[in-house]
Design brief:
It is a multi-pass membrane protein. Helix content is 80%, strand content 0%. It has 466 residues and is an all-alpha fold. It has one domain (13-188, 226-463): MFS general substrate transporter like domains (Growth Hormone, Chain: A), CATH 1.20.1250.20.
Length: 466
């Protein structure tokens, strides 16, 4: 390719777009992330109606929540690698709307089996933006400018589960459980988005200039094996790369704790405080507040401990991103112990609601920090697959935990059930500290780490006195 052709490609580089254009192309996927996650929790307040209409137990009725979350679990395994091969736009423009159609189908289904099947495929097809948006962020913003955009799009899928019960509580109470599905369809369309993946844009520019011909040996069998390899990348990364496994495990457990509230709140607040279904939904606003506060908190941490050092030194290790996770990790056990021992009749209901603020704050602060960390480590090429691998753990646990939550709280009591979760999060606090100590070595060993990340590791090793 000639220098003039490279200049043409660079002039179309998404990182050189205007702020307005960048904001729109990251804002729409962020909205899709909000809607996809909203679709999971908006169903939770409707569980009593599902029990009544289909004559099933609470655990069976909760399968509607779990099946959707399982769809969210497996959807990114396909959407992430496909986005890296064909670009980000097909996921937003074609795949996500299919999920919304299955959501509508769930509301019309006359049998529970149909509801569960539609809920699964609704989650499966709606899940794409949850992993692809990280790649879009990497396409649009350089590392030192990625903090604000990442904070916004990561906040959206955490706000969704918090706002869902608020909407679902009053909608199901007034209109029935079917309307918890139908209210989502208005967000299915995507207008005016453009492709952001540099590899796809370069390929298009080369084809337009007639400088690239498809090799004769490019057969359909080669194409199929290539696609299969792309689909397996997230699973391979999860089980072969220690950084991906550890960050996924930590984020998954924190996220699953939030999803346990969808099953525990309808037990705790009506029985302990006599809340109605709609009032129980309002109790989730503590999670929403914590999620909102987490974004500016992390931005301050990121600016002080990543952006400023990077400007002074020219480059810093990706491990500089971990400070947010190391600080945020303290909030999860603190909030869980607070919630566990104040959710009782002689304590005002505001106390357990406020206790969820540091839980949600810690959950999202850790997630943003580790999300930026793995994006810096794996770069544009594998960041979407890494987030897809993270989604396996995160949504698999989130789908499973609500199914045993009721039994756990009934057998152990609110105090010890909450404390058990708190003790586990104390142990998981070691993850960001371990990555701070050994992350550089693990990056050097990873075959998926970006060239820039590995290069920094090699340069650091060369100048190290050790």
């Amino acid at each position: 390719m000639s220098s003039s052709e490279y200049k043409l490609v660079n002039s179309q580089n998404p990182r050189n777009w205007s702020v307005r254009k960048k904001s729109y192309n990251i804002g729409v996927p962020a909205l899709f992330c909000f809607v996809a996650s909203l679709g999971s929790s908006i169903y939770a307040p409707a569980v009593p109606d599902v029990m009544k209409d289909f004559h099933v137990s609470p655990t069976v009725a909760l399968l509607g929540l779990s099946m959707y979350v399982l769809g969210l679990c497996w959807g990114p395994i396909v959407a992430g690698p496909i986005s890296e091969k064909y670009g980000r736009l097909p996921t937003y423009r074609y795949i996500f709307p299919i999920g919304m159609l299955f959501t509508v189908g769930a509301g019309f289904s006359p049998i529970l089996a149909g509801v569960l099947i539609c809920r699964f495929f609704a989650g499966f097809f709606s899940a794409g933006p949850l992993c692809v948006v990280s790649g879009t962020g990497a396409d649009l913003f350089a590392e030192e400018k990625r903090g604000v955009s990442t904070g916004v799009w990561i906040c959206c899928p955490f706000l969704g589960p918090a706002i869902g019960p608020v909407i679902g509580g009053y909608v199901s109470q007034a209109k029935g459980w079917q309307w918890t599905q139908w209210v989502l369809i208005s967000y299915a369309a995507s207008f005016g988005q453009e492709e952001t993946y540099r590899k796809v844009l370069d390929t298009r520019a080369q084809r337009k200039s007639k400088s690239m011909d498809v090799p004769e040996g490019h057969t359909s069998s080669t194409f199929k094996s290539s696609v299969l390899d792309f689909l397996l990348v997230p699973i391979r990364m999860l089980f072969t790369d220690p950084i991906v496994f550890c960050t996924s495990l930590y984020m998954a457990f924190n996220f699953a704790v939030i999803f346990m509230s969808f099953a525990s709140f309808p037990i705790i607040f009506p029985t302990v405080y006599g809340f109605t279904r709609g009032e129980t939904g309002l109790a989730f606003l503590g999670i929403a507040v914590g999620s909102i506060v987490a974004v500016p908190t992390y931005l301050v941490i990121d600016r002080m401990l990543y952006i400023v050092p990077r400007r002074k030194r020219g480059s810093v290790e990706p491990e500089q991103r971990l400070f947010g996770a190391m600080i945020g990790a303290l909030g999860m056990p603190f909030g869980l112990f607070w919630f566990a021992w104040t959710a009782k009749p002689n304590t005002h209901w505001i106390s357990p609601v406020l206790a969820m603020v540091p839980v949600a704050w810690a959950n999202l602060t850790v997630f943003i920090a580790l999300g930026l960390y793995v994006t810096d480590v794996y770069g544009e090429r594998y960041s979407a697959s890494c987030i897809a691998a993270n989604g396996i753990f995160r949504y698999l646990l989130a789908a499973t935990f609500p199914l045993f939550t009721q039994k756990m709280f009934e057998d152990l009591g609110i105090g010890w059930a909450g404390s058990t979760l708190g003790f586990i999060t104390v142990g998981l606090m070691a993850v960001p500290y371990a990555l701070w100590l050994y992350g550089q070595k693990l990056r050097g060993m990873s075959k998926y780490a970006s060239q820039e990340s590995v290069k920094y590791h090699q340069e650091s090793s060369e100048i190290s006195p050790l």
